[in-house]
Hints:
Layout: H1 2-16, H2 19-44, E1 49-50, E2 53-54, H3 55-72, H4 79-86, H5 89-92, H6 99-129, H7 138-163, H8 173-187, H9 198-204, H10 214-221, H11 226-260
Antiparallel strand pairs: 1-2
Amino acid sequence: MRLFWELGRTSFRLQLTYRAANLAGLATNFFFGLLRAAVLVALYGARQEVSGISLQAAVTYTGLSQASIAYLLAFGWWEVMESVYSGNIATDLTKPMDYFTFWLARDAGRSAASFLLRSLTIMLGYALVFDITLPGSAVQWIALIPALIGSWLISFAWRFLVNLAAFWTPDARGVGRFAFGLSWFLSGFLMPLRFFPPWFIQFSRWTPFPSMVNTVVEIYVGVLTGPALARALLTQLAWFVALAILCQIVLRAGVRRLVIQGG
């Protein structure tokens, strides 16, 4: 546990040193968030509610989804892939920590720093520009904590799994771009899932992606309450466990292939 903490703390401090990149990313995410909010306002027109989501909640959704970009690295993450191609994985595998846990610790520090520097700042900026929705009960505020942790864990496990494609192809970025693009649609990042046809919503629920973004948003705006909220949190836990197990299986197969080929 101490090693996990030290790795996370080092990663956290490293992320803080990228001041220019953090500011540029913050400005970009906030600007496009404003554009997305303007599009939703235009789509709503004179209506104040669509599919159970008020205009105020829809605008808040754009802020929340933009705030998740850096926190979840929604547009891509290639570090494990690069370690395979560079050969650094040979050194990483000798560390006194499981390879999955090693990268989990590093990503925890990075994610925490991004959450403080960019996610919270984006929401504060939104609060200055728009009349955004705030959780209306203590239960919502409390539920947000495990929901945010769960969304990050699932995101990490998915990113890690996608990166393992590097064991089987000389350039796995194409696989990654398709995989991450798919998650944008099915997670509710591009548009609230409740706006899509019922068949699409049902299909997305058979994937882990709604637990990354949609669950957090719906808890925040108060759409998920009571038993539905509890089920959503349990679903997050179940998906992380399933993805973590799958990551270990694929990793072992990849390492075995690497060793056989003399890596």
